Amino acid sequence: QVQLVESGGGLVQPGGSLRLSCAASGIMFSIYVTGWYRQAPGKQREMVATITTDGSTNYADSVKGRFTISRDNGKNTVYLEMSSLKPEDTAVYYCNAVKRATIHWGQGTQVTVSS
Fold this sequence. Notes:
Layout: E1 3-7, E2 10-12, E3 18-25, E4 33-39, E5 46-51, E6 57-59, E7 67-72, E8 77-82, E9 91-99, E10 102-105, E11 109-113
Parallel strand pairs: 2-11
Antiparallel strand pairs: 1-3, 3-8, 4-5, 4-9, 5-6, 7-8, 9-10, 9-11
């Protein structure tokens, strides 16, 4: 059974930092492209950052310079380091793992940026 479990979300003040983790099980994690997406209330889910099997990264323009995606294949985990957080970063954050036509999603973790 494939599972992706996100953790690390919470309430943070503007300008603060959070580190999200996504632990995968039931798949050969190292051969999957992984990524973080987010969905704010009333909006469509959008890509935040992705990381390929060889470590190449891609970021949404809105988070470049503030967020960093990384992966630890030995721990089957992908991370999202978020800094200089803004209220508009408030959303449910989801991780996924993609291999060809196969996509697995986690259940999401809430990030709220508010004073």
